[in-house]
Amino acid sequence: MMAQPPKSKAIERLQRLLDKILEMKQLSEDSPKFEKWQRDTRVAIGKIFGEASRNVKEFEEIFFHPSVSYFDMPDSEFQASYLSGLDSATAMLESMIDEIDEDWPDDSPTQNPSSAQVNDRPSSNEVFVIHGRDEGTKNTVARYLEQLKLHTVILAEQSNQGQTIIEKVEQHAHVGFAVALLTPDDAGSLQTDTNNLSPRARQNVIFELGFFIGRLDRKNVCALTIGEVDIPSDYAGVAYIPLDDSDGWKMKLFKELESAGLPVNPKDMLKK
Question: Helix 75-103 and helix 32-49: axis angle, to 10°?
Answer without folding.
Answer: 30
